[in-house]
Amino acid sequence: MVSVRVLNVLFTLASFVGLALSIYSYVVEQATEHDRNYKAMCDINEFVSCTAVFKSEYATGFGIIPKFLGKDSIFNKPNSLFGIIFYSLIIIFAQINSKPFALLILFLNILSIWFGIYLAYLLAFVIRRLCVVCVATYLVNIISFVCSYYKYKKLSQPTPVKIKSKKKKA
């Protein structure tokens, strides 16, 4: 089985990729807000367009917060900011090798998988666009979840107790 150290490295790498994707998303959102002619690298055609997705009503507060707390709510921020916070926390928490932190990370990753399923549904059936940055983020979340699952499993195993034998003096 893979060691906790290797899982931490994989976890951290995946989280840095997720962080980079979230920062890129935020930069694209800000650029399109200030420049109507801005063309992002992830805009391939009308169907494959990150910008179209980042401009949708679901790009802030996951499309949920504005409905319940209003568009002016302090919590109604771009999804990419939530991603930046999420991946930053995961990078920090992944370095702590304790069962409670491993469980916390596993829980956070389960939430990210559920949000990913929700957002993928919106992409496919509501927005009807393909966002390569979004799909890459979903893949990062799956990798992160798998690592967190195995890390929690590994840290939950009982540690073998070494018994010292007494040597008799002759």
TrEMBL record:
Example of a GO MF term: quinone binding
Pfam families documented for this protein: VKOR
Keywords: Disulfide bond, Endoplasmic reticulum, Membrane, Oxidoreductase, Quinone, Redox-active center, Transmembrane, Transmembrane helix
Tree of life domain: Eukaryota
Enzyme class: oxidoreductase
Keyword RNA-binding attached: no
Compartments in which it is found: Endoplasmic reticulum membrane
InterPro entries per the UniProt record, alphabetical: VKOR, VKOR_sf, VKORC1/VKORC1L1
SMART domains reported for this sequence: VKc
EC identifiers of the protein: 1.17.4.4
One of the GO biological process terms: vitamin K metabolic process
Location (main, coarse): endoplasmic reticulum
Transmembrane intervals: 6-27, 79-96, 102-123, 130-152
Residues annotated as domain Vitamin K epoxide reductase: 4-152
Keyword Disulfide bond listed: yes
Membrane-protein topology: Multi-pass membrane protein
Assigned GO CC terms: endoplasmic reticulum membrane
UniProt similarity note: Belongs to the VKOR family.
Stated name of the protein: vitamin-K-epoxide reductase (warfarin-sensitive)
Organism: Oryctes borbonicus
